[in-house]
Each structure stands twice: as structure tokens, then as C-alpha cells.
Write a sequence for this structure.
């Protein structure tokens, strides 16, 4: 079962002519985001470098929701290109342009062309925690073991 939520979307002038984000299959979790770089002026990411890539989109999420910007698995598997701050979080009160920080971990330069699918956006509900200071925490079998303490 999936839940539907309405998200207002503004396509900025430099994204004119680009398709709006869309789910590629009926059960997809993420909407594809496209690069809104100028036509004829692709952006090249050399190995080891990162760049802020514009999407030409702004959104208004309803209260209680966030949008996560995540890598596209094909770009990562085929080219070593991924979202640097994965997942990037878009808060419900942000109204600026969505930009994607891409990094090239691959061995070859990667050219980002206008309209290329560069990331995916997943809209999700948010739970805010109430933090309660305490002197000690309850005991568990694991305790403070971390970083491989439960296996390899």
C-alpha cells in the first residue's frame, strides 16, 4: 500500500522545456530529477571532483514531510557518480531551488547534459523526536558495541 501526498512544484525559468520529475514505474519510490544546465553547456565532473547541479525546480512540501535526494543506482554502478551528501534532505519549509551535489568517484570524466537524470527524490513522512536527558541508559545485550561488534 502506498500513501499519496500532494506536493506543489514550481519549474524555474532555466528548466523550461524539461519534463517534470516522474516515477519511472508504478511501484517506484523515487521521482527522477534532471539536470537544468544550459543547452550546449554541459558540466563535466572530473574524477574526484564534485559540483552543485541545478534542477530548476522548487517544491512546497506539506508540514510533516521531507524530500530526500538520493543517488541513481545506474550512475553509481556504471560511472561511479553519486550524490555526495546522500541522502540530501529538503525540509518542508525550504522554498529554494533543489540542487544536487554530485561527485565522480569513477576513473573517467563524466559529462552532465541538460535533461540528464542525475538523482532521485523520495518524499517521506517526518517524525520529530523529543529528547529527554537522563543520567544513564537502559541496558541491552549489545551495550556500547558498535562498528562491527555484531559480526563482520
Amino acid at each position: 500500500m502506498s500513501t499519496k501526498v500532494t506536493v506543489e512544484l514550481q519549474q524555474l525559468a532555466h528548466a523550461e522545456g524539461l519534463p517534470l520529475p516522474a516515477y519511472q514505474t508504478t511501484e517506484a519510490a523515487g521521482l527522477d530529477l534532471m539536470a537544468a544546465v544550459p543547452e550546449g553547456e554541459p558540466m563535466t565532473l572530473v574524477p574526484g571532483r564534485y559540483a552543485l547541479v541545478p534542477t530548476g525546480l522548487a517544491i512546497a512540501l506539506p508540514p510533516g514531510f521531507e524530500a530526500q535526494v538520493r543517488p541513481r543506482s545506474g550512475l553509481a554502478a556504471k560511472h561511479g557518480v553519486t550524490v555526495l551528501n546522500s541522502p540530501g534532505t529538503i525540509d518542508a519549509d525550504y522554498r529554494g531551488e533543489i540542487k544536487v551535489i554530485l561527485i565522480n568517484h569513477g576513473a573517467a570524466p563524466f559529462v552532465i547534459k541538460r535533461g540528464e537524470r542525475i538523482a532521485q527524490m523520495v518524499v517521506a513522512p517526518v517524525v520529530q523526536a523529543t529528547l529527554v536527558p537522563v543520567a544513564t541508559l537502559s541496558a541491552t545485550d549489545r551495550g556500547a558495541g558498535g562498528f562491527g561488534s555484531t559480526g563482520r
Summary: Residues 59 and 79 are 29 Å apart (CA to CA). Residues 8-125 form a domain with the Deoxyuridine 5'-Triphosphate Nucleotidohydrolase; Chain A fold (CATH 2.70.40.10). The chain has a mean pLDDT of 95.
